[in-house]
Specification:
This protein is α/β, with parallel strands linked by helices and 227 residues long. The chain contains ten helices and seven strands. Helices cover 46% and strands 18% of the residues. A seven-stranded mixed sheet has the order 4-3-2-1-5-6-7, with helices on both faces. The radius of gyration is 18 Å and the shape is globular. This is HAD-IB family hydrolase.
Length: 227
């Protein structure tokens, strides 16, 4: 049975595989191309307004980060699927992939050479992740699903947000659906943030990439590899 088990390499996107962040790219795209400029500006202003409440601990760090991730869908409200595909292509090819981290990309290529199963696992939009995964020959993409109504994005996500423990649930669901037996002890995960700890703890070879302060501390205490 063990001989049939696969090794998997899980890669976060923003701040891990690429240095850029999707929300800034989408914001810049909308302003430059005069697309959904009000929702884009409102998204930025309304979430920056939460920062003082977060710093004063009126809202938790998890609530703060979740709001940024969940509400990002507002920038796509009213945009039809065909137009959104063009936006996602631009985000992938003109904004994200030019900032590909060469050190992490080399890790990805080595996993592919060893025929490990590779997965792009991120809180970003599922449709965008599938484009990036296709460009990099990554086997699967797991992200946050967007709600559509009459061929247009509603500005809402389909819960749950692919974040924190939600990432573990989503990747576990995918592997079960694909009937894939994984040797997690010999598998790998790459991520940059504290809220990715549940994913990193799934595998025997967790890698903290340019980790935030909390993740750096955990990685050092646990003896995880740090890039």
């Amino acid at each position: 049975m063990e001989n049939n088990m696969k090794k998997v390499a899980l890669f976060d996107l923003d701040g891990t595989l690429v240095a850029a962040h999707i929300w800034t790219g989408l914001f810049r795209h909308h302003l430059k191309n005069k697309v959904n400029r009000f929702p884009a500006v409102w998204y930025l202003v309304s979430h920056l307004a939460l920062t003082p409440f977060w710093k004063m601990k009126f809202i938790t760090t998890e609530q703060y980060y979740r709001s940024w991730g969940k509400d990002l869908a507002q920038m796509l409200k009213g945009i039809n699927i065909e137009r959104a595909k063009e936006i996602f292509d631009w985000l992938s090819d003109e904004y994200l992939l030019p900032t590909l981290r060469k050190d992490v990309f080399q890790k990805l290529k080595k996993h592919q050479e060893k025929r490990h199963l590779t997965v792009l696992l991120s809180g970003s939009f599922q449709e965008l992740l599938e484009i990036v995964a296709n460009r990099l020959n990554i086997d699967f993409a797991v992200g946050t699903e967007l709600e559509t109504i009459k061929n247009k994005f509603s500005g809402r996500i389909i819960p749950p947000l692919c974040f924190g423990q939600g990432k573990v649930e989503k990747i576990s669901k995918l592997l079960a659906e694909k009937n894939l037996a994984i040797d997690f002890k010999e598998s790998f995960a790459y991520a940059d943030g504290f809220f990715d700890v549940p994913v990193l703890e799934m595998v025997g070879h967790p890698v903290a990439v340019e980790p935030d302060e909390k993740l750096l501390k955990i990685a050092k205490n646990k003896g995880w590899q740090i890039i």
